[in-house]
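Ticket #4471: structure output looks truncated?

Reporter: J.K.
Steps to reproduce: submitted the chain below (88 residues) through the standard prediction queue, then opened the result file.
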Amino acid sequence: MSAAGTVQTERIRENPGMPKEYFFPDEKEPHLHVHKGGVTYTDTRHKHKDLKSGSSVLRNNCTAVVTDLQAGNAREQRIAQWIQAELL
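Returned output as attached by the reporter:
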């Protein structure tokens, strides 16, 4: 199953006005917030880093987040895999 397919089954909140808005893997931190304006990563200290703004992927931010998460726990590795599959 692709990362996108996994995300589809794990959506926890959808807004009818923004049908593609959701958190991956859930609202617990760290997480990704996929929203109308792009994708934002939130770390365990609740600091945010934009990964995608509009249609522009911020590759340096994506790469930095993936590098930080790859050596982490299973949740962090899963987020890193999603970023690699969907944004890089």
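Triage note (M.O.): checked the attachment and the full token line is present. The chain has one domain: 3-86.
Status: closed, working as intended.
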